[in-house]
Design goal:
The structure is a homodimer. Chain A is α/β, with parallel strands linked by helices. Chain A is 40% helix and 14% strand. Chain A is built from 13 helices and 13 strands. Chain A has an 8-stranded mixed β-sheet with strand order 2-9-8-7-6-3-4-5, with helices on both faces. In chain A, strands 10-11-13 form a 3-stranded antiparallel β-sheet, with helices on one face. The longest helix of chain A is centred in the C-terminal third of the chain and has 30 residues. At the A-B interface, helix 4, helix 5, helix 9 and helix 10 of A face helix 4, helix 5, helix 9 and helix 10 of B.
């Protein structure tokens, strides 16, 4: 493979002095415009909840019932299994891990008091999940991702044998970054885990549960129901968010779990806070009306995002299908495409892109500790740039992959 | 003292089947109406920060610079000494204690790893501060409150001698519940503490910093500046909130400390959250304009609250000034009047009020563990009920005090 033409093209691209950012899964301006009415949908005299509570004042620690109902409908649960949170579902996850570390699961022995605890980290995965573990000095054990979810043989083997394994990070629908959907079998095997730790928890980050690019909402078995059936009713902690539905800068989030777990969360909340931003909740209730309104709204997001994912698939196929050892995902939803370069090329590809003014998520970030053992995974985050910019960024990216491969 | 007339009056009051709530420091509906325009002050196309950031999207972890500036002006600090938080300043305090317990002050040895740590708790004080300690199993040492602040001889003695004393709760302006203002000397003695623990922190809950009932903002020496002068630059953690300025159900809060401490907080934030609700911040910036706008707004609150505090003073003086062993505060701001019954009567007074349908903060709540050693303190929270209801509640209260005293 002759690197000369790719090197020459790379110099051309560098000369264009681009400045494009494909690092994070950020909604584009066009997507934000979809929720324009959200900012003005609460009139001056619209502050009463359906039960007559003045949402401007204190109280209602676990969220407005009408907001709970929307989350419950989306997650196919009941309002009693929902606690509404603030702007960031990551904050809910962090806080739940913090709570388990310092006060223990359901006020049992704190994780931190049990020794050197560990989490399973299906990889490639979401870097911010790993950051939470890092922060609490939780050891991360990478688990290979497959097209149907994490390698469940390995998950079952580890979870059942090591009582210091306390959790696993999952993005079950349109996984970050691969975009795959956990198979029904994967979900059921999760529900039927026999953890050596009685205080093992599944962190089920359902961030993209309604973020399909085409067609209907993707249904997978309900982890809360499946766990209950399997005799593990308190094992799953489910999270979701309106960050990529309405505004990342003014969203509502929730944590969902067994009603009993929700009671424990509420007990912590009574010490932890004076209450949530209820007007932000009411605003979402008014703007979306209910889950049906949310689903309709998500179709508009899909209409904006679909061409971007199609452009990626089209470009990669055209430019790279002849190149041995590289592959990529073709997700039906979510915010990312996961790309594998030939082994040992990811860091070089990212560096070349950076030279040419296109920033990607740092190579390795999708693995615990930033350590991609085969140095091959790159997360493509196409949502933020307009289509025209994405096109240019993909040109830079494909040429970088070809050049890096040729250099080897 | 003949109890018969008070007992008879108590029966009369009971027969009225009242249902009045004087338990918490909650703004009244009339106060909430002052911020009516807040809900609609952001137009559809008003989402850009002064630096041009789209507040609807991700980013700006530590808050909008223009929001920081308002807090900085109110607290007489610089924006670099401010980190903006969400709806609840209690949540910021809880999180800061949680962080110090599990990760240590400035990433030093975690408090929880150092043994059985303790906080000093000036009492009577704010029950929710005590709840935070309770939650983390932090031992609480009551400190007597005086008219000029906590008993500083005792604070100095304990803080300088016990390295397991890690913090103290302070409400320096219009203290909860006594309404007193720390004297200049008290503030300076705080700043000049020589803690045995290098990781001792002053939790300076400046919730009522601009909540005066009359006249100008009450200035006390700036704890951050005084601590820096005294060589303790990182010792104070200051908190304040718009909960009782705009809406408790849609407020903005902040934590303020040395710029270095703020960097540590930001570092935690990068693991902890994807970002704050920036539209809520922008809304406050637009509605208030700046600190001057906030001060003007607080005058309107004062106009609503002043008659309530005057009614308390007037009623208590008329009904109870003849009764030996009882006393009360006459605050110039804040949300409470602290009332001391004759020793051993507070629980009985609260029970009598409750029988007559008037709920007060439980007797004892203003002391750690709910343990008021002289069983005499009751917090009167007059802000929520309209003046007419307050009048009735005070009738019930005064008669209950007289009856309880007569019973002894």
């Amino acid at each position: 493979m002759n690197k000369a033409p790719y090197a020459a093209r790379h110099e051309e691209l560098k000369a264009r002095k681009l400045n494009l950012n494909m690092m994070r899964g950020i909604p584009s301006k066009a997507q934000l415009e979809l929720s324009r009415g959200l900012l003005t949908c609460l009139g001056d005299d619209d502050y009463l909840s359906e039960a007559g509570a003045d949402c401007r004042n204190y109280g209602i620690l676990d969220g407005l019932p009408e907001m709970k109902r929307i989350f419950a409908d989306i997650l196919d649960l009941t309002p009693g299994e929902i606690v509404v949170g603030g702007n960031s579902s990551l904050a809910l996850m962090f806080d739940n891990v913090a709570s388990n570390m310092s006060r223990g699961v359901r006020e049992d022995l704190p994780w931190a008091a049990q020794g050197h605890v560990k989490f399973l980290c299906p990889s490639p995965g979401y870097d911010r999940h790993f950051t939470v573990c890092d922060y609490f000095h939780i050891e991360m054990i990478p688990i290979e991702m497959t097209d149907t979810g994490p390698d469940m043989d390995e998950v079952e083997r580890l979870v059942s044998s090591d009582p210091l394994i306390k959790g696993i990070w999952c993005v079950p629908v349109f996984s970050n970054p691969t975009g795959i959907i956990y198979s029904d079998e994967t979900v059921r095997r999760f529900a039927n885990l026999k953890p050596a730790a009685h205080d093992f928890r599944i962190y089920w980050d359902n961030a993209y549960v309604i973020h399909q690019l085409t067609g209907e909402k993707r249904q997978i078995p309900n982890i809360v129901r499946e766990c209950a059936k399997a005799g593990n009713p308190h094992m799953p902690m489910v999270f979701t968010s309106f960050s990529k539905v309405s505004f990342p800068g003014a969203a509502v989030t929730c944590i969902a779990s067994s009603a009993e777990n929700c009671e424990y969360i509420k007990k912590r909340l009574t010490a932890q806070t004076i209450g949530p931003d209820k007007l932000r909740q009411l605003m979402h209730v008014r703007f979306f009306g209910g889950a049906e309104g949310v689903y309709k709204h998500m179709q508009k997001h899909a209409d904006i995002l679909r061409p971007k994912f199609e452009l990626i698939e089209e470009t990669l196929r055209r430019e790279l299908s002849g190149l041995d050892g590289c592959s990529w995902t073709t997700p039906e939803g979510g915010y990312f495409v996961s790309f594998d370069t030939p082994d040992g090329c990811a860091k070089r590809v990212a560096a070349l892109c950076s030279e040419a003014g296109v920033a990607f998520t740092p190579a390795g970030a999708t693995f615990p500790g930033g350590n991609d053992p085969r140095d091959r995974n790159i997360r493509i985050a196409p949502t933020f740039p307009p289509l025209e910019e994405l096109k240019v960024a993909l040109d830079v990216f494909c040429n970088a992959v070809l050049l890096a491969a040729a250099e080897r």
